[in-house]
Amino acid sequence: MNTFKYGVDFLQSSIALGIARGTVEGILTEEVVKDIEKSAGYVREIVDSGKVVYGINTGFGPLCTTLIDANDTRKLQENILMSHAVGVGEPIEKELSKLMMILKVHALSKGFSGVQLSTVERIIWHIQNDIVPVVPKQGSVGASGDLAPLSHLFLPLIGLGKVFYKGEVCNTADVLNELQMKPVALGAKEGLALINGTQFMAAHGVKAVVEMNRLMNNADLIATLMIEGLNGSIKPFFSELHQLRPYKGNVFVASTIYNLLSGSAILESHKNCSRVQDPYSMRCIPQVHGASRNAWLHFKEIIETEINAVTDNPIIINSELTISGGSFHGQPIALPLDYATLAVSELGNISDRRVYLSLEGETNGVPKLLMKSTGLNSGFMILQYTTAAIASENKGLCFPASADSIPTSMGQEDHVSMGSISGRKLLQVIDNVDKILSVELLCAAQAKDFHSPLQSTAVVEALHQHIRKHIPHLEEDQPMQDILEKALALVKSGELVELAKATAGNAYFGAGVEYFENY
After folding, report:
1. Beta strands 2-5 and 24-27: pairing type?
2. Which residues are 4's β-sheet partners?
3. Could you point out which of 7, 222, 288, 336 has its C-alpha 20 to 30 Å from the C-alpha of 51?
4. Name one Pfam family in it (predicted).
5. Under a CB-based contact definition with an 8 Å cutoff, are residues 99 and 206 in contact?
6. pLDDT tens digits for range 260-282
7. Where are the beta strands (DSSP E) in 321-386?
8. Which architecture characterizes domain 2-197 according to CATH?
9. Quick one: which of 59, 113, 40 has its CA closest to 316?
10. Which residue among the candidates 6, 42, 54, 165 is catalytic per the annotation?
11. Who contacts 291 (Cβ-Cβ below 8 Å, separation ≥6)?
């Protein structure tokens, strides 16, 4: 198993997911252990000296001027976890909770948060033993960090809250009793270090970086299959065109689709047809899919800067210098989360247009509604209703959460990012676009059937045959729910992308592959 050194190595989104899924092991090095202990020592010096430092011997938020007696500093840290655990709604996915813990361990291991080594080690114990806190979806405004979600995440450290354990939701106290373990005794500043930070937002971003990359690859492959099915032209994918407007995403999409289609007998069969131009939903695939890829590149850069940063408050430089700042504010990632949501939604919008186009009939070289006998049969007509409905739903979800701000904490926190909402919406839109693409997959495969016995390239034929192993060609109306579920499973699994890579080898990858294929 590969290992990742917390606090030292650069954490990529794919590595964070690997730790969460048990394919990568996160470890603490001796150097990092020393850094954590040194930082905790600075906090003890501050407490012993009686120097007033926010969050160590003061109250929180609007209570920052209220001094706390040295004897009560430990109780103060437990109280902040209990009082701030006010999230509501259904729990987030277990994997997201686990990602939150991984991101927090990495941040604390930088050695600027003043936490005890035993606290960090207990969080790692939760990760490694798959005893994962239950965290409600709603309640963070993404400003002073993700206060409510992080409070729920770390209540189990002090024996409170709930955890996923052996497939069930259990009270933490019961699990600790069963395992004969005691709660952690938090030291000064630790509660604040645990709940200040952007790990709720960032965890959603981490998963979105990986899932969006999978989705973009699927979108390119399914669009390629649709181009073949509808007698589309390969000219819009010529490198000569894209060298004149060389955005990384555009160039990659164009060259990848060109590679996938080059040498197709289906393309050759209509090379000299009378159609001068394809509709935008096919002709502008490099520009639209490419724009989403350009957005992903920026989004990935921002998220990975965030998950390798220290985002709690105050920051402990040494016993003489503590800085109370605003690195917990979610704005730097809230805006890209909203931007990524729009970029994903656009992949669904153009996919819906290609689904609609596939139903028009003879001008595309396929029967109307993608079925030879219509009238008695409605064919694929209503599938486009589904894509239209989901595309419309996505448009509503694209309203940027980061455009809003509601003051909190008696005005002390008077501008907030709402990035937690941005992150939740992004994953919802990704899931929705997977569904739209699964419908396009059905239509594209059906359209290609009508070109038999002409063959496409080896990779396109392999994709089509793989789809047909799971989903039949349809000659008459039948219940579609099982078929839709099978198509969605193909899209979500990523196996079409892996098949394309295995079949085409290096010939599959477009120009600039190094920017897009490490996730």
Report:
1. parallel
2. 26
3. 7
4. Lyase_aromatic
5. yes
6. 999 999 998 887 776 778 999 99
7. 322-323
8. Orthogonal Bundle (1.10)
9. 113
10. 54
11. 247, 249, 250, 343, 346
Residue-level pLDDT at 288:
98
Domains 2-197 and 207-311+324-404+416-515 share a fold: no
Which amino acid belongs to residue 455?
Q
What does 30-57 look like in DSSP terms, one character per residue?
HHHHHHHHHHHHHHHHHHHHT---TTTS
Q: CB-based contacts of 418: which residues, under 8 Å, 6+ apart?
A: 141, 142, 330, 334, 401, 402, 404, 405
Strands 315-316 and 162-165: unpaired
Give catalytic status of residue 54 as yes or no: yes
Amino acid present at 258: Y
**What global pTM score does this model have?**
0.95
**The one-letter amino acid at 267:** L
The mean pLDDT of the chain is 93
What is the band of 285 on the pLDDT scale with cuts at 50, 70, 90? Answer: very high
Q: Which superfamily does 207-311+324-404+416-515 belong to?
A: Fumarase/aspartase (Central domain) (1.20.200.10)
- Say which residue the tokens 């929705």 belong to: 432
Q: What's the token pair of residue 237?
A: 């994918």
